[in-house]
Amino acid sequence: MTSKPVETDVLVVGSGPAGATAAALLGMYGVKHILVTKYGWLADTPRAHITNQRAMEVLRDLGLEDKAVAQAVPQHLMANNVFCESLAGEEFGRLYSWGNHPSRKADYDLASPTRICDLPQNLLEPILIEAAGQRGTSLCFNTEFVDLVQDADGVTATVKDRLSGETYRALTVAPEWSIDKLGTHNAIQRALAARDAWQGRLYPTTNLRIQSSGAEVGT
Ligand SMILES: Cc1cc2nc3c(=O)[nH]c(=O)nc-3n(C[C@H](O)[C@H](O)[C@H](O)COP(=O)(O)OP(=O)(O)OC[C@H]3O[C@@H](n4cnc5c(N)ncnc54)[C@H](O)[C@@H]3O)c2cc1C
Fold first, then answer.
1. Distance from the alpha carbon of residue 89 to the mean position of ligand 1, in angstroms
2. Atom 29 in ligand 1: which residue has the minimum CA distance?
3. Which atom of ligand 1 is the closest one to the Cα of 188?
4. Which of 53-57, 87-91, 166-170, 204-208 shows the lowest mean pLDDT across its residues?
């Protein structure tokens, strides 16, 4: 481990939608920051995809709305949730969705100059990361957050270069700006949960995967 920590104002951990957006915004506002992320590249599956108007407004602020819209399914093609036997099978019913109900459409149109769209995470992240890099983010892939400690000098995070196995420290001298957003069950949440100030502000989530023959449904 190097004795002198790398200094930065903000350490962003993770290159998901939250971390990548934070980095792009920090770059836009000229705040010195480093983004570390655990793997060698970005999301390889769609995951988060419905992108609401508030999120689109952030992309608009970043000058990325057009790029996002160009890759997204537009709102009018997300008009229904369809319940069916299979993609080509019998349709049981459909509901208006995502602001497309005729009685609600005007509310959405008037609420914002932007529109809801469907932009999968694996398409959004490269747009954000490209913008972050162009705006001055120091991007460190294959770099894992391990732990943090806070003292009078700031927050010192230990991160590990997963290619070499070496660890080094990053000192964030503006800890009040620290941004953590890593989904659930991760190292940074555990580290923060250990600190009294964060107690009660973290919550667990559980994903359930249910397999069923369907025989008992609707009987
Ligand atoms: C299979 C699946 C399907 C999903 N489907 C949907 C959906 O249909 N609709 C929807 O809205 N949402 C969906 N989600 C949820 C959605 O992906 C999350 O809400 C969203 O990704 C959260 O964004 P985030 O930026 O907070 O975190 P994430 O996208 O989880 O990003 C976390 C980042 O932190 C990095 N990281 C983690 N630990 C460390 C560490 N110790 N050091 C450094 N980096 C680290 C990760 O590599 C990643 O880059 C799905 C998730 C999964 C897994």
1. 33
2. 16
3. 41
4. 204-208
- Segments making up each domain of the chain, as ranges: 1-49+120-219, 66-116
Q: Among 97, 116, 121, 189, name the best residue to mutate to test ligand 1's pocket (greatest count of ligand atoms within 8 A of Cβ).
A: 121
What top-level class would CATH report for the domain 1-49+120-219? alpha beta
Q: Average pLDDT of the chain?
A: 86
What are the C-alpha distances in Å from 162 to residues 25, 143, 144, 149, 206? 27, 6, 7, 21, 28
Residue 125 has pLDDT above 80, yes or no: yes
CA distance 17 to 217: 36
- Residue closest via CA to ligand 1's atom 50 equals 47
- Residue ranges around ligand 1 (CB below 6 Å): 13-19, 36-39, 47-50, 121, 144-145, 181-183, 186-187
Q: What local confidence, expressed as pLDDT, does residue 4 receive?
A: 79
Contacts of 169 (CB under 8 A, 6+ apart): 1, 2, 5, 6, 156, 157, 158, 159
Per-residue model confidence as pLDDT tens digits over 69-108: 999 999 999 999 999 998 899 999 999 999 999 999 999 9
Structure tokens at 149: 């400690």
